[in-house]
Design brief:
single chain; 309 residues; mainly alpha; Chitinase A, domain 3; three-stranded antiparallel beta sheet; two-stranded antiparallel sheet; 10 helices; 9% strand
Length: 309
């Protein structure tokens, strides 16, 4: 599930759009002080420049995309209602964890880390729902992707420990020690630069078709016996040594049994990709004139970040 805005995005219009579809300001704006420090009043003017400097570009990009999405929904004759908003929240929770309580905890943690109060969070859900409504008819789910997803989840997998070293000299020394019978888990814990060192180098089971792992790793695993130690595998600027702990056979769930669930999962992933592409295209088309120098600096930095992603 994509957290499209509230995380990263880009920009649009000169005049701020009306409030986003679902989101509404929860409090009436007041002209007086917004806080007191030791009895001294703090006004919005006192906060304004620093708030704009800290997050002005991000918030402006959210407002821009809000308007772009509303305009395109209007042209397409579509609406985003409360049901679609709740569906987006459900997608998000399901992505975070299969345990409902854990998912809620993780969502609250994510919102806290990203400064997503109720108004910005509801705006983010609206953007996701609007983008999904705009792209969903363009998304097709080919059987080839369903078969790939089936093999990833239900096919043969390898349980592996790895050691990652930054230099050939260090990797060669560790390989000799591992091949000589020293505990691979201990060598990984003490020497590996990979995050898996905390688990003695143990990774989650690897599918031979999982392209998130280097091809050389997967090819080597297919040839290794259980308990075997791989040769050194060069990957970018480091070296990998593997020990095959176990081969996990394919499970008994058939493709036809898994297909409906896989189709939903793959569709959501493809829609997410299309939503990200649509958001970038909308923001690229936006015409934004920023008059405030502080906001303009923040805005340009936000554009740079978006273009880099």
């Amino acid at each position: 599930m994509v957290l499209l805005l509230g995380c990263e995005t880009q920009p649009q219009t000169a005049a701020p759009p009306p409030p986003a579809n679902p989101p509404r300001a929860s409090a009436t704006r007041q002209a007086g002080p917004v806080a007191y420090i030791d009895g001294q009043p703090i006004t919005e003017a006192d906060l304004r420049a620093r708030l704009i400097e800290a997050a002005g570009g991000q918030v402006l990009s959210e407002l821009v995309l809000d308007k772009q999405i509303r305009d395109r929904l209007t042209v397409a004759g579509r609406q985003v209602d409360d049901i679609l908003i709740e569906q987006e929240k459900a997608h998000m929770l399901a992505t975070l964890s299969s345990d409902p309580n854990e998912a809620v905890r993780l969502l609250n943690e994510m919102r806290s880390e990203r400064g997503l109060g109720e108004q910005r969070f509801q705006s983010m859900l609206f953007r996701n729902a609007g983008l999904r409504a705009l792209v969903k008819d363009q998304v097709e789910v080919p059987d080839s992707l369903l078969i790939q997803a089936y093999q990833l989840q239900h096919g043969e997998r390898f349980r592996v420990r790895i050691i990652v070293a930054d230099t050939l000299t260090q990797a060669s020394d560790l390989h000799v020690r591992a091949a000589g019978g020293q505990s691979f888990a201990d060598l990984a814990s003490l020497n590996s630069t990979d995050a898996s060192a905390a688990q003695g180098g143990l990774l989650s089971p690897i599918s031979p078709i999982d392209a998130t792992y280097p091809k050389a790793m997967r090819q080597a695993l297919a040839r290794m016996p259980v308990g075997g130690i791989s040769d050194l595998i060069a990957d970018d600027d480091h070296f990998i040594i593997m020990k095959l702990e176990e081969k996990l056979p394919a499970d008994t769930i058939t493709f036809e049994e898994a297909k409906p669930r896989l189709a939903r999962t793959v569709r959501l992933e493809l829609e997410g990709q299309a939503m990200q592409q649509a958001a970038r295209a909308m923001l690229a088309d936006a015409k934004v004139v920023v008059l405030d120098p502080t906001l303009n600096k923040s805005w340009l930095e936000q554009k740079r970040k978006t273009q880099a992603n």
